[in-house]
Amino acid sequence: MLEINPGLSIWTLIIFGLLLVLLTKLAWKPILNSLKLRENAISDSLSKAEQARSEAEKLIAETERQRKLNEEQLQKQLREGKEYAERMRSELAQKAQEDAKKMLDQAKAQIERDTHTAIAQLRDAAADLAVAAAGKLIDESLNDDKHKKIVEKFISELPTQSN
């Protein structure tokens, strides 16, 4: 059955040794070199990935900082806009009050002028009526100037009524 042949075993060991030396010289070094290259490539990829992650984190931080800055500027602009609108509203309200007061004062002054004019016209009309009545009563022919002077003197002696 199975027998061990010493000559065959020796030749098998010799061929195995030669094959091992030959593979070590020809195949082992290229395999180790390819493994070393693969290891270097993986190491480079990992370092590049770490660098890319670091840069991404920096970009995220910068983007967040820029977003906060933009938000602060927006809030500031909104505050300034509200303050400006409030100032404008206040100024417009004040100007409207001033304009209304000015118009009221002008209207009062106009009423005062019209009142004085009406009183003067009323006095003149009363003087003319008094002269005409006195002329008829006295039946004297006095001239109009003399009549007016007498009536104006009488009117000036009357107590004046003022507002």
Task: Give structural attributes.
mainly alpha; 2 helices
Protein architecture, described:
It is a single chain. The longest helix is centred in the middle third of the chain and has 133 residues, at 6-138. The model has no long low-confidence stretch (mean pLDDT 86). The chain is rod-shaped, with a radius of gyration of 61 Å. The protein has 163 residues and is mainly alpha-helical. The chain has 2 helices and no strands.
Q: Would you count the extended β strands for me?
A: 0
**Portion in strands:** under 5%
Radius of gyration over C-alpha positions, nearest whole angstrom? 61 Å
Number of helices: 2
Summarize the structure.
This protein is mainly alpha-helical.
SSE topology sketch:
Blueprint: H1 6-138, H2 144-157
Helix pairs in contact: 1-2
